[in-house]
């Protein structure tokens, strides 16, 4: 059983001027302010689901086909549990929000197993070596992720106004679960961040002179505050090198840098630093949490800084510290 991507749109022939299925899914996603990343992922899963069922319209399908599709991902596709959950979320959105149909409880879905793995953590000397082989904006972004514990997209989506030098805090807006939180602003990054903000200010002035300079605003703020999109405070802290057009509005503006830019920089720095462990932006977040616990900070404080809803998620770092089973001395060694 295979699931081809299926790029064609399903038409609504004979249904007047109603939009096609994928067009309607896209419209509903944007109406509810889903990110472009989520939009792309959900549309991809809807296309695969339709293609896997002989390009029949989802109105003609139901819980049996959904269960069969999701189980196939686990058994034949051997996808990770997070991937299967994303596919499930996409199909639930399709039926609930677009087709207005509630799917019964999907009790017969074969669930992909979620592996229990400890996070990869760099030691403090390894972090120092890694950052020593980076420079410019990628160095600043990597340092900020390690120094604050932010997720990659939280760092990329930072706006100028989110950095509070007086309070030495960073406001993380619309984090995982749609929640705002505050995290620490590393003192050692205050001066580099000031220089970066000055660069952003000059770049924004150039954009305004060129008739651009408007940035995407979340949650319909552009309609509520028409001038906010061109305000310096709303500009991204890490803007892209080139202006681009917003696929939602067609307006020309400057988005934040692509996450692949940092991924490539980390890969090069890891090789030059001679670090054997795999390194990603999330590795820096794991290292932040572990090093704070090593320094004696309360686990509740670390939970708040990381934005974890459940303390059990933060407690995984105690195993990395050796405060779990590995902290117990064997009776053979007593």
TrEMBL record:
UniProt-listed PROSITE patterns: CB, TYR_RECOMBINASE
GO molecular function (one): DNA binding
Domain of life: Bacteria
GO biological process, one term: DNA recombination
Pfam families noted in UniProt: Phage_int_SAM_4, Phage_integrase
Gene3D superfamilies: 1.10.150.130, Intergrase catalytic core
All residue ranges annotated as the Core-binding (CB) domain in the record: 16-99
Domain Tyr recombinase per the UniProt entry, residue ranges: 117-333
Keywords annotated in UniProt: DNA integration, DNA recombination, DNA-binding
InterPro entries noted in UniProt: CB, DNA_brk_join_enz, Integrase-like_cat_sf, Integrase_catalytic, Integrase_integron-type, Integrase_recombinase_N, Integrase_SAM-like_N, Tyrosine_recombinase_XerCD
Family: Belongs to the 'phage' integrase family.
PANTHER family, per the entry: PHAGE INTEGRASE-RELATED, PROPHAGE INTEGRASE INTD-RELATED
Protein name per the record: Integron integrase
């Amino acid at each position: 059983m295979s699931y081809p991507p299926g790029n064609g749109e399903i038409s609504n022939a004979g249904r007047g001027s109603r939009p096609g299925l994928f067009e309607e899914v896209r419209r509903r996603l944007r109406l509810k302010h889903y990110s472009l990343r989520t939009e792309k992922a959900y549309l991809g899963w809807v296309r695969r689901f339709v293609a896997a069922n002989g390009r029949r319209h989802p109105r003609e399908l139901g819980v049996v086909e959904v269960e069969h599709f999701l189980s196939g991902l686990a058994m034949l596709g051997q996808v990770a549990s997070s991937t299967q959950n994303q596919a499930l979320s996409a199909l639930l959105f399709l039926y609930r929000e677009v087709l207005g149909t509630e799917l019964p409880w999907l009790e017969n879905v074969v669930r992909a197993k979620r592996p229990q793995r400890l996070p990869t953590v760099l030691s403090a000397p390894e972090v120092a070596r890694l950052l020593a082989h980076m420079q410019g904006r990628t160095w600043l972004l990597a340092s900020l992720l390690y120094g604050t514990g932010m997720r990659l997209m939280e760092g990329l989506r930072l706006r100028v106004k989110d950095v509070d030098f007086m309070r030495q805090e960073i406001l993380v807006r619309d984090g995982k679960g749609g929640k705002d939180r505050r995290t620490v602003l590393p003192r050692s990054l205050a001066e580099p961040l000031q220089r970066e903000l000055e660069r952003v200010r000059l770049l924004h002035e150039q954009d305004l002179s060129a008739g651009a300079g408007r940035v995407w605003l979340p949650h319909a703020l552009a309609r509520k505050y028409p001038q906010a999109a061109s305000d310096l405070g709303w500009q991204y802290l890490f803007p892209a090198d080139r202006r681009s057009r917003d696929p939602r509005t067609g307006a020309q503006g400057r988005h934040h840098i692509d996450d692949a830019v940092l991924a490539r920089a980390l890969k090069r720095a890891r090789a030059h630093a001679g670090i054997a462990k795999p390194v990603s932006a999330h590795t820096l977040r794991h290292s932040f949490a572990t090093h704070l616990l090593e320094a004696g900070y309360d686990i509740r404080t670390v939970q708040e800084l990381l934005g974890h809803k459940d303390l059990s998620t933060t407690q995984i770092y105690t195993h990395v510290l050796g405060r779990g089973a590995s902290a117990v001395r064997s009776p053979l060694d007593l």
